[in-house]
Amino acid sequence: MKKRMVRIVLSLMITVSVAVSSSSILWAADTETSAEADSETDDATEERSGENFRIVLETGEIEVKNQTTRTFTSVEYKKAETKNDNEEAIEGEVNTSGENAEEQWNLEVTDEDGTVHIFENVIPDKWKSPVIVDSYGFLYIQYQDENGNAQEAIETADEKKFDQPVTMYVSTNVHIRKEASKDAESLKILALGEEWQATGAAPGWFKVEKDGISGYVFHSYLTEDKESVEKALKAKQEAEAAAAAQAAAEAQAAAEAQAAAAQVAAEAQAAAPQVYEVSRQAYDDCDGSGHGYYEITYSDGSVAYEEY
Question: What DSSP string describes 256-275?
Answer without folding.
Answer: HHHHHHHHHHHHHHHHSPPP
